[in-house]
Specification:
Blueprint (H helix, E strand, L loop, with lengths): L3 H15 L6 E6 L2 E12 L5 E3 L3 H10 L9 E9 L1 H11 L3 E6 L11 H5 L3 E4 L4 E8 L2 E7 L8 H8 L2 H9 L3 E5 L7 H12 L11 E5 L8 H13 L5 E6 L1 H10 L7 H12 L3 E4 L4 E6 L2 E6 L12 H14 L4 H18 L5 H12 L4
Parallel strand pairs: 1-5, 1-9, 2-7, 5-6, 9-10, 10-11, 11-12
Antiparallel strand pairs: 2-3, 2-4, 7-8, 12-13, 13-14
Helix pairs in contact: 1-12, 1-13, 3-11, 7-8, 9-10, 11-12
């Protein structure tokens, strides 16, 4: 007899088969990074061979031991790729066949080479400035993102309007979209100002719709921002509910950080998510820990286990791929559990293959998962 999880995976596969050839328009922004995926050397056998530091704690111990002394820590670049929450999230959606407009930090006067393949597959692209840079240190138990992003300070509401052609043109673009995503609030210092500009100048130009499009937000580790900044951002996200079905995506660490800012003292994933959701006043809160995913929609809590991978090829971007799968499902009108399963399947494929799945990749992955081959 088929268990509940296998049945749910099979049901998702059937739904996706019936939705082939869908047509969705999405607008995503506004960051952009050149990511160097890095392994940290533990012991080097010769010029070509080394063993890597596997755990973040091991690197931490090595750094602590160097206090008052010094240390030589070697980085080995495994891959240079497009980065930033917006571009990785967009790349995953493009693989699924979404018609996508990207607005972000992807190079001036020319598109940076790492973004060129993505830009060539978009319906339209608007570059605001040069990208930032991230050294992404990968470990088996997580990653450390060492970012250089001071150049993103030029991304302001005035710059946003200038590049897109004014509030009227922005409203025209948004009117045609099924999803509008504004990613990486933490590293784009003037993002709240862009949201305020949209609310004050563009929202009055947008029609009220019975079926609202989705607005998706990813804060991207707000720990470094002040409590006042975070509370202001949460209030602004709540205002998007007037024109959109608003989704806030968090990882587990971010959930507890936002809970603390709200004065919520809950120790379990479920209780913390439900309490934060009530504070936000939005359509959906979705959280993606490593081994599962949860969401709260219309005050109902949903949970799905993921196809956990103990030895991932790549973890940087796994959360963005989860968000892409989840938001695609929501844009297609799928139920919350199916949306969670599409999210964990997308990220599950990504960490095993170091690339986002297309529709056929995903269907094959779901079949393998359902049959116990993952």
């Amino acid at each position: 007899m088929m268990d509940k999880k296998s049945a749910a995976i099979g049901e998702l596969s059937s739904k996706l088969e019936s939705l082939k050839g869908f047509s969705l328009n999405m607008i995503i922004g506004v960051d952009g990074f050149v990511d160097e995926i890095i392994h940290v050397v533990d012991k080097r056998q010769d010029f070509n061979n080394f063993t890597r530091i596997g755990l973040i704690e091991e690197l931490g111990d090595r750094i602590v031991k160097a206090a008052g002394l010094s240390a030589n820590i070697e980085f080995v670049v495994q891959q240079t790729k497009l980065g930033g929450n917006g571009p990785i999230y967009s790349n995953a959606l493009i693989e699924y066949g979404v018609s996508l407009t990207y607005i972000g930090a992807i190079g001036l006067p020319d598109i940076h080479p790492v973004f060129k393949p993505m830009a060539d597959r978009t319906a339209a692209v608007y570059s605001l400035c040069d990208p930032g840079h991230t050294d992404a240190l990968e470990f088996t138990d997580g990653k450390l993102m060492l970012g250089k992003y001071s150049g993103l300070s030029v991304i302001t509401w005035e710059r946003f309007k200038e590049v897109l052609g004014g509030a009227d043109k922005i409203a025209e673009i948004i009117r045609q979209c099924h999803l509008f995503g504004m990613e990486n609030w933490t590293m784009v210092p003037n993002m709240s100002g862009i949201w305020e500009g949209l609310i004050n100048e563009v929202f009055p130009l947008l029609p009220d719709k019975d079926e609202k499009p989705i607005a998706f937000f990813d804060l991207a580790d707000p720990e470094k921002r002040t409590k006042t900044d975070i509370l202001n951002a949460m209030a602004l996200i709540g205002k998007f509910e007037s024109k959109f079905k608003t989704i806030l995506g968090l990882n587990e660490k971010e959930l507890y950080e936002i809970a603390a800012v709200f004065g919520v003292n809950e120790n379990s994933l479920k209780s913390a998510a439900e309490a934060v959701y009530k504070k936000l006043g939005v359509y959906c809160l979705v959280v993606h820990p490593t081994k599962e995913a949860i969401c709260v929609i219309n005050n109902e809590y949903y949970q799905a286990d993921g196809p956990y991978c103990a030895q991932p090829k790549l973890t940087t971007g796994a959360g963005d791929n989860f968000n892409a799968g989840f938001c695609l499902a929501q844009s297609l009108g799928l139920d919350p559990l199916s949306s969670l399963l599409l999210g964990v399947s997308t990220s599950g494929y990504y960490v095993r293959n170091a690339q986002s799945p297309n529709f056929e990749n995903l269907l094959n992955f779901l079949r393998d998962w359902q049959n116990g081959n993952i």
